[in-house]
Each structure stands twice: as C-alpha cells, then as structure tokens.
Amino acid sequence: MVKIVRLEPISQNTEVQTNANLLSALLSEDLHVLKECGGRGLCATCHVYIKQGMESLSTMARREQRTLEVITTAQANSRLACQSRVLGEGVVVEVPSGMYIDALEDVEALIGRRTEQALLHPITGDVVVEPGKLITRSVLSELKDIRFQVGEYLSRTRQA
Asked: How much is the pLDDT for 102?
C-alpha cells in the first residue's frame, strides 16, 4: 500500500510504499542525500527533521538513538531517513538546509568562489563552511582532512 510523504522546504509530495524507509522517498525525488554507511544508521548523513507524523513512523531503535546523540544539529524531532519506516499517513519531512561534504572534486571546482549554502560535516552536521565564505585551497585542505576522518570513523563502525 502506498503512503504520501510531504517533503519540505521544497513543498513536494512523494509516494512511498508502506514499511519503506524515508530515504527511499528522498532518493526517488532525486534529492542529493548521502548514505555513507549504506543505510545502516551509523553515519547520520541522511538526518532529517519530522515536522508532522512522527507517530506514523517506525519506532526509533537504539542504534539510531546513539547516532543521533552525536549530531549537534539533532532535535527532538530528528530521525535518520534510512532507519525511519513509513507506516501511516501524514508524515512531513524537512530536509536540513546545507550540503553535506561528499564530492571534494565538486568543491575543488569552486575554488575562488563563495559558497551559496552551508557545507556540513557528514557525521556531526556541523557547519564547516559558512554560506558566503570564499572557498580557498586551505578550506579545501580542511575539507579533505574531514573526509579522511569520516572514512576512519566509518571504517571503525563497520568493524564493530
């Protein structure tokens, strides 16, 4: 059976199969959502806010709770899209503003330009580069260090 999920701030409705996760709804709309851990609830790159309909989602497992505890932008209505299964109607999802750092090649092409939106740390959700900041080679070097740290973190969590 199909459920309708509302995506904000893009004001778009999308269909998702009952018991499918929110990540599938986001990806079906071609939204750029990372899934660094492969949808295992370890990396928080699919972090979203549930504006309405929390009761229409699956209950939060301990792994998801632990992952959300390390995200500085997490709120009471935070969920990981990969872990949130749609069980009923009335779900409204807000995708956090900003862009998670995943493709450094894309950022490298922006050297000498100013960011239009915040660049976010892929694990914590912290703003790494503020909107309007000039992207320089030193900023790119910092971003590469973050990507290395993320790789190390994911390697450790996959072994656990």
From this structure: 52
SS3 state at 56: helix
- Other Cβ atoms less than 10 A from the Cβ of 5: the count is 25
User: pLDDT tens digits, residue range 63-111?
Assistant: 999 989 888 778 999 999 999 999 999 999 987 766 555 555 556 666 7
Please measure the distance between the N-terminal and C-terminal CA atoms of the chain and give it in whole angstroms.
36
Instruction: Please state, in angstroms and as integers, the Cα–Cα distance from residue 16 to each residue in 4, 32, 84, 88, 107, following that order.
Output: 6, 17, 12, 10, 32
Distance set, CA 100 to CA 2, 16, 50, 137 (Å)? 30, 24, 19, 18
Phi-psi region of 38 (alpha: psi -120 to 50; beta: other; left: phi over 0): left
pTM of the complete model? 0.66
